[in-house]
From TrEMBL:
<dbReference type="Pfam" id="PF00158">
    <property type="entry name" value="Sigma54_activat"/>
</dbReference>
<dbReference type="InterPro" id="IPR003593">
    <property type="entry name" value="AAA+_ATPase"/>
</dbReference>
<dbReference type="InterPro" id="IPR002197">
    <property type="entry name" value="HTH_Fis"/>
</dbReference>
<dbReference type="InterPro" id="IPR025944">
    <property type="entry name" value="Sigma_54_int_dom_CS"/>
</dbReference>
<keyword id="KW-0805">Transcription regulation</keyword>
<dbReference type="Pfam" id="PF25601">
    <property type="entry name" value="AAA_lid_14"/>
</dbReference>
<keyword id="KW-0547">Nucleotide-binding</keyword>
<dbReference type="InterPro" id="IPR009057">
    <property type="entry name" value="Homeodomain-like_sf"/>
</dbReference>
<dbReference type="InterPro" id="IPR025662">
    <property type="entry name" value="Sigma_54_int_dom_ATP-bd_1"/>
</dbReference>
<keyword id="KW-0238">DNA-binding</keyword>
<dbReference type="InterPro" id="IPR027417">
    <property type="entry name" value="P-loop_NTPase"/>
</dbReference>
<keyword id="KW-0067">ATP-binding</keyword>
<dbReference type="InterPro" id="IPR058031">
    <property type="entry name" value="AAA_lid_NorR"/>
</dbReference>
<dbReference type="InterPro" id="IPR002078">
    <property type="entry name" value="Sigma_54_int"/>
</dbReference>
<keyword id="KW-0804">Transcription</keyword>
<feature type="domain" description="Sigma-54 factor interaction">
    <location>
        <begin position="27"/>
        <end position="258"/>
    </location>
</feature>
<dbReference type="Pfam" id="PF02954">
    <property type="entry name" value="HTH_8"/>
</dbReference>
Amino acid sequence: MVFPSEKSLPAQSVTTLQPDDPIEGMIIGQSVAIQQVIAAARKIASHATATVLIQGESGTGKDVMARAIHELGRPTSPTSLFIPINCAAIPETLLETELFGVEAGAYTDAKVSRDGWLSRANRGTLFLDEIGSMPLILQAKLLRVLETRSFRRVGGTRELHVNLRIISATNADLQAAVARKTFRQDLFYRLNGFPIYMPPLRERREDLPLLIEHFLRLASARRGGPLEISADAMRLLERHSWPGNIRELQHVIERGNILCDNNVIQPKDILNALPVTPQYADQQVIELLQKLQFPEGGLDLPALLNTIEQSFIQEALKRCGGNQVHAAQLLGISRDKLRYRLAERGAKRPSV
């Protein structure tokens, strides 16, 4: 499979936005599952103030779908902005002022009045990613915005009115969060005005060749020359379970592009780019066993296994710069299990 530089591709094959059909090149696939999603996006795009809740696993393209809905609705307001907010990435104390804006003198550092994202998204789209992470106190204020299309800046008394589309996204089960009382039920129903479910890649495997073609084309454009993928490497991609969905596929192609020789992605490049899975872990165990020899005098198997485990844990932490979440992913265990192993090691360490 060969993909030339994007500059040399025929105009009709380049996956870029087309003025008459903005969703082309953003949502890629021909499966029934993704075509249903595209049909839903087209229907809701013409309703400029409808609330949309996009649900799905991490890496399924919820942010891309939100932007596609915005682009589809732009002909009525070509200058409208798309304002994306990650509710999980912003501290609670900062999120309120960033969302609603602030009046001069509201607090010590507020020297001048400042608009928030709601004001900037007026006549456009406000995209609230990871909405399940929004603090309860802000959920109540967001509910009021949805009901009245008005709000006050932090420290302000004047009502500001906006006309905008609010799209939310989450990979969490909001109904379960409602049951745990960590998410407001009334807000859930308001946000869920028009639900869209983004299917995981394993439910739309027939779209895999098209997605691979898309990411290879992008990689070809970046490297300024053609990029190929061998048939064996393609089969490896087709057999993978893709727990990280489209984002994982994109990263694997990017890493394969870097690792490959002679502009051809081979199976070895894919194996080095993919995270360790049981399918490949068995082969790694075999290779390790071939390097080991059983001592003539016997051994302390529990101690040896513990030493090996701790050695790999420390190596994983070193590779991940001490980040326990990433190290746990590299080891194929949960963060809690990794923390337990580290605590256990600390408890067994003799005191000085």
